[in-house]
Amino acid sequence: YGFINTCLKSLVVEKYGEETWEKLRLQAGVQDSFLTFEVYKDEITMQLVDKACKVLGVPADIVLREFGKYFFEFCKRSGYDHMLRTLGGNLYEFIENLDALHSYLSLSYQASLIEMNAPSFRVEKNEDGSMHLHYYSDRRGLCHIVPGIIGAAALDFFNIEISMKIVNQTEEEERTGKKEHIVFLVTQNPLFPCKERNEFSSSSQCLADSEKQIENQLNKEDLERAKNANGDRGNSVCPVKKSHWKTLRGIITLGKGKLLRGFDPVYPKSLWIDTKTFCNGLPFHMVFDKELKVKQAGVSIQKIVPGLQTMGICLDQYFRIVHPEVPFTISSIQKFINSQFVFQTRREMMPESWKERPMLELRGQMMWMEPLQCMLYLCSPLLRTLHELEERQMHIADIAPHDVTRDLILLNQQRLAEMELSSQLERKKEELRILSKHLEEEKKKTEALLYAMLPQHVANQLKEGKRVEAGEFKECTILFSDVVTFTNICAQCEPIQIVLMLNSMYLRFDRLTTVHDVYKVETIGDAYMVVGGVPVPVPTHAERVANFALGMIMAAKGVQNPVSGNPIQIRVGIHTGPVLAGVVGEKMPRYCLFGDTVNIASRMESHGVPSKIHLSSSAYQCLKYKNFEITERGEIEVKGKGKMHTYFLIRNKSATENEIMGRP
C-alpha cells in the first residue's frame, strides 16, 4: 500500500534530504508521491529499498532495520499511537496481538479490491524469560524490518531494551503455500534508572512489611468474622480450601478494588447453562475432536451450513482455513492457537441457494479443551459492510445481540464512506500538487524570459505594479559593436543566411555577458550594445567591458561570412562616462540608456578599425593602470564631436585566452 512507500520517502527526505530522495526515486523509476490507500506493486518497494542501499552505501539489513524503527514512529504520527499502545500490557501480549491488529486494518483497507497481505507473527515464551518470535511472510528479504519495529515498540511502550537475532530461517512447510519463516530469539532487559529501581525495591519491601503488620494486628475473632462474611460465596463457587489470611486478602481486594497479589479465578463445580441456551447464545460456535469430527455447533451456523446438523461429519469437508494458512489438522491449529482463525465455507458443500452468493467467512479464536480432547471454535461472521451482509442474504438479526460484529458492520460502513472521501481528497491534492509543480516550472521559464529582457530588480518592480523611476549613474562603461561590410553581405545573401550568421554570433556574445557579468542593453541589426556598472554599480565596470570586448574579437573568428566563407570581422568602440537609465514604454518595455556617453561610445565604434577595440580617452584613463596592453591611435576627427584623442585595446596581460572566453 501507498502508506509503506510514503513512509520510506519520509524517512529518506527527513534524514538525507529531498535531493537524495529525488536521486533514489529516479534510479528506481518510481513516481514522487503515493496515495495512502492505493495498492502498488511489491516491486516498487523492493526497488526503492535496493536503490536506497546503493545510493546511501549502506547494507540492506541496516536500511531495513532503520526503516522498521522509523515505520513505528511514522505509524504513531499517523494516528495509530493509541491503537498500538492498547494491544497488550507487555511485549509478549503486544506481539501476540499483532495479527489481530492486521485483521482489523484489513477492514479499513477493504475499500480496495485487493486484500491486505500482511505478515503473521507467533510468539513462544522460554523458561529463561526470553522469547522465540516466529515471523511468516510472502515477501522474502524484508525480515530485518521486524527487529526495528519490535525494538522501537519495546522501548517506547514497555521501557525495555531488547536484542533480536535470527536463530532459524526456512521455507515454511507447515503452512499452505511457500512462506518465508524466520525465527528470532528475543531477549529483554528492563531500563529502570538506579533511583527508580531503588524506589521500586523499597516500595515492594514496604508493601510486604505492611501485610505482616496487618496480619499480626488482626485477632482470631476478626478473621473468623471475615471468614463467615465470605463463607457462602466461598463454599458455593470455590472448592479449594483457603487459609484465613488468603480469605482476608480476598476481602481487602474486593472491598478496596486494589489487587495486592496475582489474580486467581474461581470456577463453579458444574456448568450452569443448558445445551440449548449455549447453542442459541453462541450461534456461530463449533466443537470438534482430534479427527475433526463435529460434536456441537451453534444454531446460526447450522442454518447456513445444514450439513453440520449431522453430528460426526468432518469439519474440513465443509470449511477451509483462510488464515493462518495452515493445513486443516489439530496439530497445526494447536501450534497457531493464539492466532485468529478465519474459516471459509466450501462452495460444493453449500445448499443450492448459496451457489451464486459469495462464500461465508467466519473469524474467531480456538480453545483447546484438554479434559474433552476437543477444540472449541468461538467465532462470528466476517462481514465488513452492509453490502457484504446483503450479498449473502443475511440480516443483522442473524448475529447474536451481544456480538459486536453488529456494531462493527454499521460503524465500518460509515468509516469506509469517510475513507473513500479521504482517498478522493488525497487524489485531488496530488493532482493539485502536480499542477502546482508544472505552474512553478512555467513561472520560472517566464521569469527567465523576462529577466533576459529587463534587469531583475526592474522586472520585479514592474510585476508588482510599481513605477520604475529613472536612475542616474555617475560612471559606467558602454560598448558598441557592428559587423564590417554588413550592408554588402546582406545584399549578396538570402535573408535566412543573415539570420543564421547573426544568431551564431549573438549566442557567443550572450554567453560572454554571463562570463564577464555585463548587461546586454539591446541589439539592432548587426549592432550589439552592452554596459558595465548599470543597472548595478560596480567599480570594475571598465575592466569587465574591456575583457568582454577582447572575448568578442576572439568569438567573432568562429563565425563564418556567408559570402566569402572567411571569419567575419567586427568593430568595437568603448567609452566611459555618466548616463541616465530607465524603462521606456508599457508594451514591450525596454531598459534604455540616455546621455552623451551613449553617443560617444557609438562614435568610437563607427570610427573604429576592423578587428580592433577603439577606446575613448576616458575609457583609457580607467584601464591604463589595470594590466591591459593599450596603444595610442592619436587624434582623429569624430563626427559631431570634433577632434578626439583615442586608443586601441590590444590584450589583457594577466588573463589567458581561456579565461577571457570563460573556458575551463
Largest sheet data: 8 strands, mixed
Terminus-to-terminus distance: 49 Å
Mean pLDDT: 82
What's the CATH H-level homologous superfamily of the domain at 468-661? Nucleotide cyclase, GGDEF domain
Question: What percent strand?
Answer: 15-25%
Protein name: guanylate cyclase
Subcellular location: Cytoplasm
Organism: Molothrus ater
EC number: 4.6.1.2
Key terms for this structure?
single chain, 664 residues, alpha+beta, Beta-Lactamase, Alpha-Beta Plaits, eight-stranded mixed β-sheet, six-stranded antiparallel β-sheet, 22% strand, elongated, heme binding
Descriptive report:
The chain has 23 helices and 18 strands. The protein has 664 residues and is of the alpha+beta class. Among the domains are: 275-402, Beta-Lactamase (2-Layer Sandwich); 468-661, Nucleotide cyclase, GGDEF domain (Alpha-Beta Plaits), CATH 3.30.70.1230. Helix 1 (2-16) packs across helix 2 (18-28) and helix 1 packs parallel to helix 3.
Write a short abstract of this structure.
Its EC number is 4.6.1.2. The protein has 664 residues and is α+β, with helices and mostly antiparallel strands. It contains 23 helices and 18 strands.
What is this structure's SSE topology?
Layout: H1 2-16, H2 18-28, H3 42-56, H4 60-85, H5 91-96, H6 98-108, E1 120-125, E2 131-137, H7 145-158, E3 160-172, E4 179-190, H8 194-217, H9 220-229, H10 231-237, H11 244-256, H12 275-281, E5 286-289, E6 294-297, H13 299-304, E7 319-323, H14 330-335, E8 341-345, E9 361-369, E10 374-381, H15 386-391, H16 405-453, H17 456-463, E11 471-483, H18 486-492, H19 495-516, E12 519-524, E13 527-532, H20 541-556, E14 570-584, E15 590-594, H21 596-606, E16 613-615, H22 617-623, E17 628-638, E18 642-652, H23 657-661
Parallel strand pairs: 14-16
Antiparallel strand pairs: 1-2, 2-4, 3-4, 5-6, 5-10, 7-8, 8-9, 9-10, 11-13, 11-14, 12-13, 14-15, 16-18, 17-18
